[in-house]
Amino acid sequence: MVDRTFIKNFNSTIIGMMLLSPLLSMPFILYGMSLGIRKAYTYFAIFLGIVAYLTAPRADLFHHARQYYYYIGKSWDYLWDRTISADFVIPVTEWYMANHNIPFEFLRLVMIPVSFIILNKIFFTLVDESEKEYSNREINFWYSAFFLSYPFYFLIAGTRYCFAACFMLYGMFQLIKYGNYVRALLFFCIAVCIHFSMMLFIAVGIIFIYAQFNKYWVGLFCIMAVVLRQQYVSVFGAFLMENELRGVGYIGEGIWASGAKLSMKAVLYYVGQSLCTLLPLVYVLIKRFDGYNKWNYLIVSLFFLILLNLGQFSLYVRTLLILSTVFIFYLITIEEKKALSISFKRIVMAGAVIIFAFNIYTNRVMISLSKYDEICYPLPFILIHHFDEYWIFQINKK
User: Fold this and answer.
1) ∠ CA(110), CA(165), CA(120), 5° rounding?
2) Domain containing 288: what range?
3) What is the pLDDT of residues 196-205, one digit of tens each?
4) Is pLDDT above 60 for 46?
5) Rounded to the nearest 5 degrees, what angle is found at the Cα of 305, between the Cα atoms of 176 and 259?
6) Is the residue at 313 inside a domain?
7) Which of the two residues, 283 and 314, has the higher pLDDT score?
8) Apex 192 CA angle, 188 and 196, nearest 5
9) Is the confidence at residue 209, as pLDDT, over 60?
10) What is the SS3 string spanning the chain?
């Protein structure tokens, strides 16, 4: 009776609690998730957006904050002449916000919930339309693995890339699950307009999905990726340079491309997440490769790009981020025909927990500077406060 009453009044309860205090709403959200209430996952996404709102601008997020303040007072003609490129969505949004007195924090307050709602849609469609009957406990197991293995702070700090990746994945989902070319193309276009690098993932993904190589050809392509990666770097980098296209910084020389002068925390992230994601993945591909499962080919396309970008720190880590997310979706599709062993599931969860720990460690400075103490305040109070411009520039000088 208590559960039925709670479910009936779920929306009003959560909204009231979130307005009173987002932190106070979390036990109710988690309880709703344990009962299998789908809206609870949407409210969880909104809660994550509030966490992102209170996160201090560091890394790429600082560069976007700096750009935001730079846009203040700039005309549309200036934006069009100096800034606009193929991936125009975020610059245009930042310019509009800067010139209409919308605090920069509101960008991530919107982007993070939208990103998770998109990923939730993929997750729950795979679960609900699966031939396997999932219990609430099993659903929350896989959702926990998905959330823990998804680099939340990379999503906040990266701003453009992770947001674009969610749209790209939803386009792939439409293509694989329903064969809906129109919707897939629409989401692919949105993804590319947010971040140019999605073109590479889309092109390689489509080639693998429709070519549907057997696992022996897959092995051969992976070996070729390792052998030819240096030639790929030099040819692709030269092409970008000659055509004055963005992306040169990700290919060739430099800290982002080669990984030179990386701090110990970056190396730890680089190696740790690789082992936790790639070792279980290789095991599953060898043991449970299914030529009729198109998710196999999307996974293999990402694995191919991982091998192709060995040593290219930025592209490698960014590809790994997408792979660790798709891997959980892939495992759900595998379970449709035969359940995965308990021991393997424990390994996957342990890897997800380790990845989460790496994410916390590598972003510890950002976390320590954030205003997370305000998460217990009333929501209206949270939303009227934002980071001071002078303070943002000061903390990023250190």
Assistant:
1) 65
2) 196-362
3) 888 888 998 9
4) yes
5) 140
6) yes
7) 283
8) 145
9) yes
10) CHHHHHHHCHHHHHHHHHHHCHHHHHHHHHHHHHCCCHHHHHHHHHHHHHHHHCCCCCHHHHHHHHHHHHHCCCCHHHHHHHCCCCCCHHHHHHHHHHCCCCCCHHHHHHHHHHHHHHHHHHHHHHHHCCCCCCCHHHHHHHHHHHHHHCCHHHHHHHCCHHHHHHHHHHHHHHHHHHCCHHHHHHHHHHHHHHCCCHHHHHHHHHHHHHHCCCHHHHHHHHHHHHHHHHHHHHHHHHHHHHCCCCCHHHCCCCHHHHCCCCCHHHHHHHHHHHHHHHHHHHHHHHHHCCCCCHHHHHHHHHHHHHHHCCCCHHHHHHHHHHHHHHHHHHHHHHCCCCCCCHHHHHHHHHHHHHHHHHHHHHCHHHHHHCCHHHHHCCHHHHHCCCCCHHHHHHHCCC
Q: Encode pLDDT of 257-279 as tens digits.
A: 444 455 565 666 667 777 777 78
**How far apart are the C-alpha atoms of 254 and 353, rounded to whole Å?**
31
Of the segments 87-91, 135-139, 256-260, which one has the largest average pLDDT value?
Answer: 135-139
Residue-wise pLDDT for 348-392, tens only, equals 999 888 888 888 887 888 888 889 989 999 999 999 888 887 888
Question: CA separation (Å) from 187 to 94, 143, 208, 335, 393?
Answer: 21, 23, 19, 27, 35
Amino acid identity, residue 64? Answer: H
Pair of tokens at residue 80: 């069009």
Q: What is the pLDDT of residues 321-336, one digit of tens each?
A: 888 888 899 999 888 8
Q: What percent of the chain has pLDDT over 90?
A: 24
What mean pLDDT value characterizes the chain?
Answer: 81
Taking the C-alpha atoms of residue 167 and residue 390, their distance in angstroms, rounded to an integer, is 34
| Residue 232 located in a structural domain | yes
Q: Is residue 119 one of the residues assigned to a domain?
A: no
Residues 242, 244, 246: CA angle, nearest 5 degrees: 125
Instruction: Give the total number of structural domains in the chain.
Output: 1
> How many alpha carbons fall within 13 Å on the CB side of residue 34?
8
- With a cut of 70, say whether residue 137 has pLDDT above it: yes
Domain-embedded: residue 58: no
